[in-house]
Amino acid sequence: xxxxxxxxxxxxxxxxGRVIGMINDGALCLTVAIGHRTGLFDTMAGxxxxxxxxxxxxxxxxxxxxxxxxxxxxxxxIVDHDPDTGTYRLPDEHARVLTRDGEGDNxxxxxQIIPVLAGVETDIVDCFREGGGVPYERFERFHEVMMEDSxxxxxxxxxxxxxxxxxxxxxxxxxxxxxxxxxxxxxxxLNSLAAAFPNSTFVGYDLSDxxxxxxxxxxxxxxxxxxxxxxxxxxxxEATVEAAAFDLVLTFDAIHDQADPMAVLRGIRRALKHDxxxxxxxxxxxxHHHGNMDHPLAxxxxxxxxxxxxxxxxxxxxEGLGTMWGCETxxxxxxxxxFSSVTQYELEHDIMNVxxxxxx
Length: 360
Prior knowledge:
Elements: H1 9-37, H2 40-45, H3 52-59, H4 63-75, E1 80-82, E2 87-89, H5 92-98, H6 107-111, H7 113-118, H8 121-130, H9 142-153, H10 158-162, H11 169-175, E3 178-182, H12 188-196, E4 201-206, H13 209-222, E5 227-231, H14 237-240, E6 246-252, H15 261-271, E7 272-283, H16 298-315, H17 326-336, E8 341-345, E9 353-359
Parallel strand pairs: 3-4, 3-6, 4-5, 6-7
Antiparallel strand pairs: 1-2, 7-9, 8-9
């Protein structure tokens, strides 16, 4: 007899209920992402009780789609519904974490990761069977979503929380230093710094031509002349970067998914002046599966690793370290790359990442 038929019935039923919850929550991630992208949450946050037609009109959307979306939001207990009047409202407590003007982080931004990853599911299944990886260009809207995430996690905290990890760094930026951002994406963090510190000069590198084009356009729009962006593969940074050219190098969740993380780290080490500093934001977690059992975002992060970070590295013939390469691995790589001092910090505003301050 098959072993599974002798399973504990209560445990099996409990797990079945958990799987049903997973399916429902996964589906809600898709509809929450739609609510964010269409502006429905933002619209409803400013409204009293309203019916589907009124909500659709206020959001300038099609009523039939809004009505069905409201069904998902109602049964998902995200939106309140009064069946007697046929009206709906977004509770203030929910608006706080699902709108662009909420007091905390907009969690609907993170929900968008699920449909982005779902778009490459078939490619990932093929990789399970045949090996290889899925390249960056297959991920639609990836840089757009990452920019939104950066707007919450990195940009508003740069000057007050991240840069002060290094004593005197803000003062040096005010006086004027050279800064490099490796894996800058759409450049939102670097453009923010360029505007805040006009006496310093800033350079951003990223593999994506589209992301670099966006960053350049934004720099022009804000009138920054002290920032430049370049589309390039940073795998050869160790051999091509100008030695001792930068006072500060930054990476934001950009090392673990590189094709050759060690070469990039060595290139960063080469790029730094002898008294320079490297600030690396990367994923907080353990290299060991059992070490992440209590991590609040571990299932999400391993899924992101399987369907993005690991596979884009493998697509370039890389190591495929994955999102959960772990703090142990990160510290080992940084030491092997030639950094003599690495200090690790956890910041209250960011439960997903750890910050490393590295010196040559």
